[in-house]
Write a structure and sequence with these properties.
The protein is built from 20 helices and no strands. The chain is mainly α and 382 residues long. It has a domain at 197-333. The protein is globular, with a radius of gyration of 21 Å.
Length: 382
């Protein structure tokens, strides 16, 4: 019994943080103009401090600190310009990589707040998804802080295009995102094609592509061979240095887990049902329908690239649309109460699963909480 209590106690910092943010989110949605301003400010500050106030407790964070030190010492580092410029600037102020962690956390939180405040039908639920979906909050906290920021900057630009048809702002924010993480180029080009080619929005074609993607996962070796040849032909024509990095991901099979595969495809099935069950779910609002379609394409890409876990991260530029699509679907679907409780449990289980992630060194990265408000991280770090 004592060991169970200790085990459950490891989750307390995260649960308290989740409850605090959700309470402030409710105030932001329901409060007066002044309360909205105060609660919104507190959400940004608390999220920033929780994500950014941390020692380098994982291999990835230690690698960021190492690159930060190399850049401030004048060494050339093959990395995106935004990280290099940020490191040079903060390196003039102090030699602690904590400044980079806080800087990236602040920008991540600001763009999250801007995107869902303006475009989500349920701000609180969007915040809940951000915290619970492992590829977002936990990824920003301990693994890929560069790419999570790129996700959210790209999301903001994409929403400008989808909701306001502002292609100029889409290009600008996509360019900013590109200088944060080069992988955004694939999502940027696909969404441009999505708006030019009407067939990509056809429900039947989307369904066929989705079914095809679920079948070919059974033969990952053949998929790897075909996509590898296509990519090598691409980089032989389009000779951009950053493209060479991704060729490494085609050199062997490094599959995603079946749990992740199941989670992504359950969400994909829900979104596809939304497209075809027009009598039960109102999808006449073309803007949200486009988000739903783009999310499904993200699942298709995950299935296609399932032989390489690193490559599936490209699909996260589409998966991030769930911050808006899930609240919208829940608002439209019936019976609302049952669906709401089911989806909440679904995401909360993802959060628990993500917290129990075990690093290649064999220990849990996120448990116990290793930020500066927690335990002595040196006992657990890699």
């Amino acid at each position: 019994m004592r060991s169970i209590e200790l085990e459950l106690g490891l989750y307390i910092p995260y649960l308290l943080f989740l409850l605090m943010i959700l309470s402030l989110s409710v105030l932001f949605e329901k409060g007066t103009r002044q309360i909205k301003w105060i609660s919104g400010f507190l959400i940004v500050v608390i999220l920033t401090l929780f994500i950014g106030l941390k020692p380098p407790f994982s291999w990835d964070l230690k690698n960021y600190c190492s690159m930060f030190q190399d850049i401030t010492n004048g060494y050339i580092v093959a990395l995106e310009p935004f990280f290099i410029i940020s490191s040079k600037f903060f390196g003039l102020l102090c030699d602690n990589c904590l400044t980079i962690f806080l800087w990236y956390a602040l920008l991540t939180t600001i763009f999250l707040h801007l995107a869902i405040r303006r475009y989500s039908v349920n701000y609180t639920f969007s915040i809940f998804i951000f915290i619970c979906a492992p590829f977002l909050f936990l990824n920003a906290f301990g693994v890929e802080l560069r790419q999570v920021l790129a996700f959210l900057v790209f999301l903001y630009g994409a929403l400008k295009l989808i909701f306001e048809r502002n292609i100029r702002m889409y290009i600008i924010f996509s360019a900013v995102s590109f200088f944060m993480h080069f992988s955004v180029v694939f999502a940027f080009l696909f969404i441009l094609l999505f708006y030019k080619i009407k067939l990509l929005k056809n429900r039947c074609i989307i369904l066929l592509l989705y079914l095809f993607s679920t079948i070919i996962i059974l033969n990952q070796g053949l998929t790897l061979k075909i996509l590898s040849n296509l990519y090598l032909n691409l980089i032989s024509v389009v000779k951009l240095p950053f493209l060479l990095k991704y060729s490494l991901y085609f050199q062997g099979i490094n599959s995603i887990s079946w749990i992740k595969y199941g989670v992504y495809n359950m969400l994909g099935a829900l979104h596809i049902l939304t497209l075809f069950k027009s009598k039960r779910i109102d999808i006449k609002e073309a803007k949200y329908k486009n988000l739903i379609v783009l999310f499904v394409y993200g699942v298709i890409f995950i299935n296609l690239f399932s032989f390489s876990a690193p490559l599936t991260r490209i699909a996260f530029y589409f998966q991030i649309f769930q911050l808006l699509t899930i609240p919208y679907i829940i608002k439209k679907i019936k019976p609302k109460d049952i669906v709401f409780v089911t989806v909440v449990c679904f995401y909360f289980l993802q959060f628990v699963y993500g917290l129990n992630y075990i690093s290649p060194s064999g220990y849990k990265i996120f448990l116990p909480y290793r930020g500066y408000l927690g335990v002595n991280y040196e006992l657990y770090s890699e």
